[in-house]
Structures are given as structure tokens and as C-alpha cells.
Amino acid sequence: MTVAVLTGVPGVGKTTVADEANETLAEKDSEYEMVSFGTMMLEVARDEGLVEERDEMRKLPSEEQRRVQEKAGERIAERAEETNIMVDTHCAIKTPEGYLPGLPEWVLRGLEPDVIVLVEADPDEIMFRRLDDETRARDLEATSEIATHQDMNRNAAMSYATLTGATVKIVENPDGGVEEAAEELADALA
Ligand code: ATP
Ligand code: MG
Fold first, then answer.
1. What is the pLDDT of residues 5-60, one digit of tens each?
2. Using alpha carbons only, what angle is made at residue 158 by residues 103 and 86, rounded to the nearest 5 degrees?
3. What whole-number distance in Å separates Cα of residue 168 and Cα of residue 5?
4. Burial of 82 (0-12, 13-18, 19+ CB in 10 A)
């Protein structure tokens, strides 16, 4: 079955576009199970009795985090033997020390993605989506920073592709364009 990695900067519309694409895919009998990489890491850490709550994850020693990350990738790949999986995760993570690859080599080796999907939009539109979406508390970023973050995501995605042989699919999600974006995503994943 297919393992698709779904990425894009916070608030670009990943969940919105993927949910809509999945409705179309379900009609074609190629539905995807949506998995959040962070939630899978939490599941692994809980099963091993390392943590109880999500917030405790950050306090794990980095070696432990790395091992949990690796196991989460393997667990997703195991699940993908039964069903198509769409993994919601960060491509390049912005930290005070610089951008951090969300999918390091030791995770990619277990995960073996077939396609990496980058959902992108105009940085100004993304800024307003973040401000308008009251259901979430996303960091405030200048449009130039959003643009750089999107650039870094492209760079990270292509290096993940180099390591795994996956393809990189860019899906534009302009204002009011969810339907077209979802159609393009569904076509790429059918
Ligand atoms: P996160 O990474 O934080 O989970 P996300 O990429 O999944 O974010 P969504 O939650 O899908 O983003 O969307 C963020 C907001 O943008 C929502 O309010 C959603 O309705 C809106 N939105 C998404 N796509 C579009 C679009 N094409 N036009 C207008 N609004 C949009
Ligand atoms: Mg989301």
C-alpha cells in the first residue's frame, strides 16, 4: 500500500485539503488512513511506559526521542501493509537553533514513503488563515519568514526524496481553492 507524507507550514490547509481529497479517494476505494507522526510517537512512548502525556515527550532524553521516532516510523510502515497511510508531519521544523529536519534518515529508513506532498500557498494568505482560525493558537510569523519556511520545506522534501526514492508533489492551495487542491491531491494519490 502507499505511504504518503503530508507536509506544509502550519495553517497552510493540510488537514482541510487532505480530508476533502480523502472523500474522493474513498469513493474510488483508495481511502487513506490519516496518521499524525507526533501522535504515533506518543503512542510508542506510552506503550513503553516512558510517558503518559504529550507534554512529557519533550522532556525525554534526546537518545530516547530518537529511538521513539525511529519506532514510530516502523510502526507506520507496518500499518501500511494493510492500508494506505497519509502521515501528517513537519518537513523542516523551525527552532531557535535553526531549521531541523522533521524526518531524519533513521526515520525515513523505517517509514519508506512513496510520495511527499507539500501543500503550499501565498505567504500573505497563510498569515491571514492563521489569524482567522480561532480553533488553533499558531505562532505569529512575518510573511517573509513564512516564505523562507516554505523554501526550507522544499529543500528538506527533496533531500528526503534523495534518501528514499520518493517523489515530491507540490499542491498549491490558494484562497478559495480547496476543491481544486483536493482534486489534485486525490489524483496524485489514487
Ligand atoms: P496545522 O499544521 O496547524 O495543522 P493545517 O495546514 O492543517 O495546519 P488547516 O487547519 O487545514 O491547516 O487550515 C487552516 C485554516 O485555513 C482553516 O481555518 C481553514 O479553513 C483555512 N483554509 C484552508 N485552506 C484554505 C483555502 N484554500 N482558502 C481559504 N481558507 C483556507
Ligand atoms: Mg492540520
1. 999 999 999 999 999 999 999 999 999 999 999 999 999 999 999 999 999 998 99
2. 55
3. 9
4. exposed
The answer, yes or no, to whether any atom of ligand 1 lies below 6 A from the CB of 7, is: no
Q: Which atom of ligand 1 is nearest to the CA of 119?
A: 6
| Crossing angle for the helix pair 14-27 and 178-189, to the nearest 10 degrees | 50
| Rounded Cα gap, residues 176 and 154, in angstroms | 23
Answer whether 74 contacts ligand 1 (Cβ < 6 A). no
Helix residue ranges per DSSP H, 60-177: 62-79, 105-111, 123-132, 143-164
- Residue with CA at minimum distance from ligand 1 atom 24: 13
Nearest-10 Cα torsion for 129, 135, 140, 141: -40
Q: Is any ligand 1 atom within 6 A of the Cβ of residue 188? A: no
In angstroms, rounded to a whole number, what is the distance separating the alpha carbons of residues 66 and 110? 13
